[in-house]
From TrEMBL:
This is DUF1023 domain-containing protein. It comes from the Bacteria. SUPFAM superfamilies: alpha/beta-Hydrolases. InterPro entries: AB_hydrolase_fold, DUF1023. Residues 177-332 form the DUF1023 domain. Pfam families: Abhydrolase_8.
Amino acid sequence: MLADAPSLRHAAHLLTVDADWLTAQTDWLSRNVDALPAAGFRGEAADTAVARLHTLVRPMTLPPEQMLRVAQVLSMTAGLREELDAAARRALALADHVTGAAPLAALLLRDLRALGDVLDYTCARQIDLLCTPIPDETPARLSDTPDLDLAAVHELNMLSSPVPEHPDVQVLESADGRLVAAVGDLASAASVTTIVAGVGSSDPAHLPAHLDRARTVAAATGGAAVLWLGYPAPGSVGRALAQEPARAAGAELQAFQRELARRFPDQRRVVVGHSYGSVVAGAAASRGGGLYADDLVLIGSPGAGVDHAGQLTLLGDHPQVHAMTNPSDPIALTVTEGAGVHGPDPTSPGFGAQVWPGDPSGNHGSYWEDPRFLARLRGLADQKNPMASSE
């Protein structure tokens, strides 16, 4: 956290004073250089020397300008910090004087702390932009803000996210048509299940249904769930024949899981790839470096982009690949035991995955309503035998 409001204002004042002094010194140097010819310093060589001195003095005008802009940023930050501090004092007073208000005040204080962290981050970044030639790019990935906690990351993303506010959802990434959001207390959860969605998942109209699936998984596993829409998903089955979107998305998923592992190294990680999302998950796990996951679950899969589960590298304790396709899922028509556009059927015996029996009455979208499937996910999250959990 940056300094408090009085310290920020004091720093702004010192910068302003020093900038004024540097400006005065630069003006003094310029006047003295201009006065050299009048003192008898004439001739071609003298004119060249005077021009050179002006060239050397001119860059000295830049630091005072930067210092004044930084002072302005610090003054604005101080004002916003004072408003946050005042809101925190009101929240504490509410908890002290209103019966039953303590839980609400605690939530408000948590959000105010997150906003304070965002303010600190934004202030520091703005100063960097003023003083160094770094590009002015908005953070797009969770790894772009490694020092911010998830609450602050959420507040930062909500400044530009088109996603409506959901009390139970934290937006972890939101840029370039991509969205990654967590349901449940990701920071304290013992397990996290990352759901990689498939065809049509980039359509904003489908977002409520995807969030409900994440809520269902979080409730079933007792941990957190991440809805990973971190790529421009194919909009139709025909476009899902392409492999390039999955390869590009696989790199993004790999980076996201790596950042989760860095932030929460003791957390158990499960990745569920649904439909074309299983192709993405397969691409992530078959890339160099592997995928940070204890278990990979491929459901309703047209293939994982590899010929055998042994080609998928999972970075976890006793990692395993699991596969499940409902008998009535039409995705089965696109893949066979021996081949498919994205590789063989992951539920085929030769693929090498742990196969979960599908629901005879289920379809391509009903996995999230299948209690046996959810019980198996709970088993993975609890580090139990997933088959035993379905008994």
